[in-house]
Amino acid sequence: MLRKYSSSRTLKDNIQLGSLTAFSAGMVNVTSLIIFFAFTSNVTGHYAILAEEIAKGNWNQVLMVFFWLFLFFYGNFIANYLVINSQRSSYIAHALPLVLEIVCLSSVGVYGLYYYQETLFETEILIGVMLLAMGLQNGLTASISNSAVKTTHMTGLTTDLAILVSMFTKKKYREVKELRDKAKLLSTIAVSYILGGVIAGLIYFAMGFKVFFMVSLFLVFVIFYDYTKLRFQLLMRKRRSKVPGGKRIKLKEMWLDRVSF
């Protein structure tokens, strides 16, 4: 799910990646809406706010909104930079953005529990940290899936899904496997996003800022699920290489271990 890159990914890989990360994005966005009255999984609205504040001449707010946009941009930049500059382990390079996201969200949770005084400046900084986290996630999923998976932006997803549904009114399009696969992926992401938002809302009303720890734990599960799966595959390869006459298989599997792990 995490270690495969671009064209080597299957529909199953993208559905797993999309559903799990969309679930966490929904959790983050709904939580930020409840607590801070701001969306943090995308920046479409922030561009509108930026234009509004420029028109009003509120330059302090202009700088803050621009700072938010930069943090989301920087998160995407860092995620893709780590992916394209991985030298040895694609899994580690692809997992690092999620680790950084966990650090960001856990920091918001800790600050919210013990230090948050509900001032405007604090709120603006915490929103920025969450935008950075969502930028990291969106940059990762888009980079390793060749832009097939984007889990923090529902506007484009809804547009693509509506176009596909419209195309499916004609039989010739319904018979195209690539279009059916894309519709399945987009539908899964949308449902996961909503489900994550609903669950986050319920957790927040019961536990407050601890919801950020729940999101972080979920991301830890995503990382270690893929790690466990990878280790199991490597173990099975080593076992198969021990069969009689399997010398060539062993050499091939050793090479695969080097390039994939």
UniProtKB/TrEMBL annotation:
The chain crosses the membrane at residues 20-39, 59-79, 91-113, 125-144, 185-205, 211-228. Pfam families: DUF1275. Coiled coil: none annotated. Keywords: Membrane, Transmembrane, Transmembrane helix. InterPro entries: DUF1275 (IPR010699). This is YoaK family protein. It comes from Belliella marina.
